[in-house]
Predict the 3D structure of the following.
Amino acid sequence: MKRFILLVATVAALAAAAAIPLGQGAVGHDSSALRAALTVGDIQTHLEALQAAADDGGGTRDEQSAGFQNTVDYVVSELQSYGYTPVTQEFSFDVYIEDAPPVLQQLLPIPKTYVPGADVVTMEFSGTVTRTGQLVPTNDIVIPPGPVEGTSNSGCEAADFPAAVSGNIALIQRGTCTFRQKVTNAQAAGAIGVVLFNEGQPGRTDAFEGTLDPPLTTIPVVMASFAVGVELYNATTTGTVTVRVGTAGHVETVPSVNVIADTSGGRADRTVVVGGHLDSVPEGPGINDDGSGISTILEIAHQFSVLGIDPTNRVRFAFFGGEEEGLLGSEYYAGHLTARELKDIAVMLDYDMLASPNFVRFVYDGDGSAGGPKGPSGSGNVEKIFNDYFASQGLATSPTAFDGRSDYVAFTDRGIPAGGIFAGAEEIKTAAEEAIYGGTAGEPYDRCYHEACDDISNPLPEALDQFSDAAADAVFQFAMTTSSVNGGGKASSSSSKYDFKGSKVVR
């Protein structure tokens, strides 16, 4: 654990080490004073304040609760007390409110009603409408499923829809393209409803809450489990299947806000953006997701001020709203920057979930060497900074893909180098990971991910200790370097190829 003391150091001592071009050699600047000043106890104080913010807001820090505004007020107040001048950037977004459970019934040949939640769920942004018709499968349905996700191309092309779909219900398998693209193609083919079903590989079998993104559709769209999809598909191979499909929901506009604070010094044309998200999901207080990230960022900002660090490059501490609703705050922020302002951002560091109780030390795979999407030019150097730091502490790391689940997307989509660290969410720890990192194989990295139990008892101090040090070191390296991050190149993969936007599954 960290020493619970404040180490006073001069700026000269903090920046004494000579700069090493990023991505070459070991750590270029000595961040030890900053890391020593950054204590788990102080970060825990922020986490407790966020728990209190949620408690006063009905147990959540979701935008539709008082807990979100409590969080914003706390972050702004803390930044002001450290000597910063935070700016709040207001925006709004549409959320989907389900008004009634979905309906999926087989009327012929065998009457059967499928169970909402277990067998079928409403797709977000499906309109309020019920339709009855013949169930017509698209082409490219793959049963049994292929060995990897995305094997099925069902519904991704206009040619996938037989003429019989017109005036009837389309049966479409998940895979390859976005849900919205599949539904748009179905509507263009004349379908009066859509039954989507999961693709069938491990982890892709259940009915789940995916999103079509705004606007509302004019036809009902439901997501069924793989088992239900197989049952219905097999029935269509032996005769006519008649189904009833219905959904009910509406859209409400919700206000949100980003909080932005800059260091007073540093080159504005080499700005280092350090980001996390303010909001939680409605189900819980989000103390790991992402209280751990914003608390760490707050304390880094605090110690920059206390230690009098005069950065070579301006550091921008960014706290985004709307992340859980689809990375909306970060997209709004980046989308409202001028071309000059975008060019002035040297790098984006993303800190989302830094204290998972069954953690793995994941580092975003900036250069794509592990087989995932490659980030914009320079992202490999960001990855190396984190890996070099952990290696200097004798700690192993594992790569994780840029999978579109956090706020870096708004920056990588615009060609800005990015990276970050991640302690893990709902995925299951493997035996190999247990051997390296400890914890429990066969259990999620965070069993309370997006649940009410992601409260003050959920973050693991050991993880928070290690991840906050790495987070502080990376901020310091990029703040103090005189070397180029080697950015400006276009990303090789866009967010449209990702499964997620925040917590929203889009394909």
Notes: The chain has two domains: 11-84+263-505, 95-252.
